[in-house]
Specification:
Layout: H1 8-17, E1 22-24, E2 29-35, H2 39-56, E3 61-65, E4 68-73, H3 83-95
Antiparallel strand pairs: 1-2, 2-4, 3-4
Helix pairs in contact: 2-3
Amino acid sequence: MAIAELTESERTSLLAAHPYWSLAREGKAIERTFVFADFNAAWGFMARVALLAEKADHHPEWFNVYNRVEINLTTHDAGGLSQRDADMATAIDAMV
């Protein structure tokens, strides 16, 4: 089953629902930076997101330095943002 890329209107709705996320990669991805008290808190957050991602079979691109975690969501199979990214952003936002 093909995964549909979000329309312009759907991308606008996604950003309205997730104000801490911003468009990246010419509108093909969303990104957010999280800052935690220390490395342990950042790593624990990453572990929880990893469990979610594995269950959803939708894995983020991310970068971690000490207490900072940068997450980038895109759906390669759709060629950009999809509902899978919106769902993952919702789940991640619920954790913090």
